[in-house]
Amino acid sequence: MLDENHHLIQCIMDYQSKGKTAECTQYQQILHRNLVYLATIADSNQNMQSLLPAVSPSCGFMQM
């Protein structure tokens, strides 16, 4: 998706330089949708981390 976003940005810049605003708007909407999707994933991952219990740094074996 990052490669797709890079391509969308390149297309937006190209159309802007040519004054083709209608095409820019179409690509900007797709880019916005992708960015919102990525932000939602990042936010849900952050929320999951806050729900998980803290992990102890020691990983030694129990001795009997």
Automatic annotation (TrEMBL):
Pfam family, one: SSXT
GO CC annotation terms, alphabetical: nucleoplasm
Domain SS18 N-terminal: 1-50
Subcellular localization(s) per the UniProt record: Nucleus
One GO molecular-function entry: transcription coactivator activity
Domain of life: Eukaryota
Keywords from the named record: Activator, Calcium, Chromatin regulator, Nucleus, Repeat, Transcription, Transcription regulation
A biological process from GO: positive regulation of transcription by RNA polymerase II
Family: Belongs to the SS18 family.
The protein's name: SS18 N-terminal domain-containing protein
Organism, as annotated: Monopterus albus
